[in-house]
Amino acid sequence: MTRYELFRKRIAPALFLAGVAWIAYDTCDRQERTKATFVFDFGAAEHDVRAVEAEIWMNGQQVTEFRRTAMDGGYIGKTKFDGSLPDTDGEIRIDVELDNGEHRLVTRQIHFAEGSTVTIPLERDLR
After folding, report:
1. Cβ contacts of residue 75 below 8 Å, gap of 6+?
2. In which domain, by residue range, is 66 found?
3. What's the predicted TM-score (pTM) here?
4. What is the chain's pLDDT, residue by residue, as a tens digit (127 residues)?
5. Which residues are within 8 A (CB) of 35 and not within 5 positions of it... i.e. 6 or more apart?
6. Overall domain count for the chain
7. Enclosing H/E stretch for 103
8. Are residues 97 and 63 in the same domain?
9. Do 9 and 38 share a structural domain?
């Protein structure tokens, strides 16, 4: 077997597989996610809330969204959602629909750690 055949049949495939493995590792490493639970605290206004929509933005991009609507004649109750996000800092934009049809838009800066529960107090904004 010549040097060329040795390279073509043994070394080149090994280098190719090592390159693919490195690319896969690099891609997975960049996509680290941080998991957190977001809880909306409506306080005394809880019985007035009919729908809520939330978007989380990071680095100028929307990374997740959440929607919940109460059944006819009901109220929304306790509201929380889990997120798996690419960063630990961002902005949450919340649109709350009240029973009188009025919409309240609330924007908050958020910071969280892995596995944390972030409570967002909204009672003051819904009065």
Report:
1. 46, 47, 48, 49, 50, 99
2. 34-126
3. 0.72
4. 787 777 777 787 888 888 888 887 777 655 678 889 999 999 999 999 999 999 999 999 999 999 999 988 888 888 999 988 888 899 999 999 998 889 999 999 999 998 999 999 999 998 8
5. 82, 83, 84, 85, 114, 115
6. 2
7. strand 103-111
8. yes
9. no
